[in-house]
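Why do we care about 3D structure at all? Because function follows from shape, and shape follows, mostly, from sequence. That is the central idea of this module. The next example makes it concrete: a single protein chain, its amino acid sequence, and then its structure expressed as tokens.
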Amino acid sequence: MTTEKVVEHGGDHRKHDLLLSNLERAIKEEEQVERELDVNELSRLCQLHGKGIPASQGLDQRKATVEICEFDDDG
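And the structure:
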């Protein structure tokens, strides 16, 4: 009976480690997607800014500065 509890407890640790690993991977993937969205949104705002539309319009609480438009030679 004691051996079964140890095996069961060890199984719980493995399950916990697997869940933690999956969670960490999901968080990293989510952060990557968020960075890509930020870059795409900032690029779109730079294009709009080049057409005379303020860069802060529609930013939804994300920070934008004039420096973000410097990489875009089209605007």
